[in-house]
Amino acid sequence: MADRSERHPRDAVSLVLGLLLTVGALMFLVTDVTGHGFDLRWVVPVALIAIGGLGLTASLRR
Amino acid sequence: MPGAGRGTIVAVMTETTTAPQGPPSGPHPSLLYRDPDNSMFAGVCTAVGRYTGTDPVIWRIVTVVLTVFGGAGVLLYVLGWLLIPKAGAPMSIAEGALRRRQPLTPAVVLAIVLVALFVFSGVHRGHGLWALAVIAGVAYLVHRDREGRPLVPSYAGAAGPPADVAGPADAPQAAPAPPPPAASWPTDPAAWAGPATAPAWKVPPAEPRPPRSRLGVVTLSVAALVSGVLVLADQAGADGVTPARTLAVALLVVGGGLVVGTWLGRARWLFLVGILLAVALVGTAATDDASDTFRGGLGERTWVVSPGATDASYRLGIGEATLDLRDLPATGRHVAVDAHIGAGHLIVLVPDDVPIRLHATARVGDITEFGRSIANGGERMERTLTYGPPGDPQVEVDAAVTAGQVEVRHG
Among B2, B149, B304, B331, which residue's Cβ finds the most Cβ atoms within 10 Å? Predict the structure, then answer.
């Protein structure tokens, strides 16, 4: 990939989508292999806090 | 669903050859509009496909899949119907209901989708939350990625697009873009009639496409190689390798390829492959559970726990099995026994002189003790029973049927 797939400006879309798939696959593997589930109750509040924080930051920077 | 962003039409005036016909006004100058007359239903998937430059079939499939797995597809479709304006309409149904003078911003649309997401998640106890989050995130990122770029080919001129770049005949007329600062637009409406000559439309040369990245092909090749090795290992009887885990590893590779694409190469389409793998993973995992439930074959079994055993585990798919504990001596040595039947009848013979704690489970069916039913008619019935002399239990028994009967008998 050295010649045709050159470095480019950071692509946040690829990063977010890739992390979604990677984290999902890792969570399944860990749960399936170890038998320990994840407590996902923190996902919704953390998502809300992140969305709110990003929105406020973006608004205040304008 | 993506936000109701308004695309811009880049216009550059070169020379005047036709008259501008009016002020910069009109329906949505965006590709995000519904055209129900030329769509299957309300035109939501077609609108999103047109806006994102993707095949509407993809969005129809996503809608159907999300509808089947939790019903989120219906919610998203209704939201799209409410938030995306119809062709020729100045604003969407939701905007009209809110009596807004300006279209909703993408941030407000995203907020509406998120609120609906959390309400839906609450109603369905989190079911489909991940799918909604993925769709909302993808749509928003696609929209954001579109910002600053023209959604239709650039053309020269200030008053309006030529026929060949204005979109399909059924599309709404794109609004004339405001002129660039250098070309002052007359503030007097009377001047909008313009000069007698009209502007000449000039399509600027297209930017050369960047070379196609090999990242996607390389990622899929690595995923195929790794999956092939794991399948071979599974067929060779390797412990811990299952079809679901193989799919999860492939998903991990595809996700890793996308992450690499953040800095090197580009292959966003891998996300669609990842979605397909995720759906296959969910289905396969469910099948694995089912195959584990009915593991052990068919027929009648008699399982006698030998006096020297410290632990024992038995499985029967469908049929009748007798778990005989009567040979266990009262030595005080701890013994753990696990017996499971997918569908059928599990008989447990307990001795009188050994302290036993028996945990009986019947997901569907009943539990009987010495000829008397102690649990039936419910869903996932569980009873913890003790037998023998008082004291700490020497034998711990886990007796379960997925569908059928657990019956405890005296030895």
Answer: B2
